[in-house]
């Protein structure tokens, strides 16, 4: 219902696009956080170690 209300506004399509881009960005961020938790990155030795 809120999406329909926003879409009907003069700025609605732009705002919905911005919100969609924010969701995509947040999803990519969470994927990177999950990857970072799965691997231990040691920048001093420049190595990756898989954490089980």
Write a structural description.
This protein is α+β, with helices and mostly antiparallel strands and 52 residues long. The protein has one domain (2-50). 63% of the residues lie in helices and 15% in strands. The protein is built from 2 helices and 2 strands. It has helices at residues 2-7, 12-38, and strands spanning 39-42, 47-50. The chain has a two-stranded antiparallel sheet. A hairpin with a 4-residue loop joins strand 1 and strand 2. It starts with a helix and ends with a strand. The model has no long low-confidence stretch (mean pLDDT 82).
What key attributes describe this structure?
52 residues, alpha+beta, two-stranded antiparallel ribbon, 2 helices, 63% helix
